[in-house]
Amino acid sequence: MLTKAEKEKNAKIRKEKEASLKKRLDLHQKVTTKARVAMLRYGLIIEVVNTVQAKLAQEAGFTAICPYDYPAPHSASANGNPTTSDPRVIREMMNKVLIPLMAKVRIGHIIEAQMAEHLGVNIIDESEYAGEAKAKHILKNGFRAPF
Known about the structure:
By secondary structure, the chain is α/β, with parallel strands linked by helices. It has four helices and four strands, in the order H-E-H-E-H-E-H-E.
């Protein structure tokens, strides 16, 4: 049976290990994110409609894909601005290809950005569309995924 002092010592050691691990994970995430963004800088990003096109894009040497699950007339909101892709399509593409996936979200639509980040996309594109010049951009400091 452990004494109270031993339990406190073990708890302190566990907290120190957890803090060290969290620090290492945060550093790894920052390095990985910078590498992903650098990789996209000089590459080609292609919009794909389904997983077959995503696989073809990967084989053709594209550096990233952007899911675009509907033809243009059907993917617009009432004001004519495109909406984000279906989460099922994003998840399906992520499971089929190894190249980074970039999700588009509308300006100011924080829920779309949170959904994309929760799905695990590599980068988020907050697209600017005509007619939304007055919209406020998302505050990006609360996100782990780069914009």
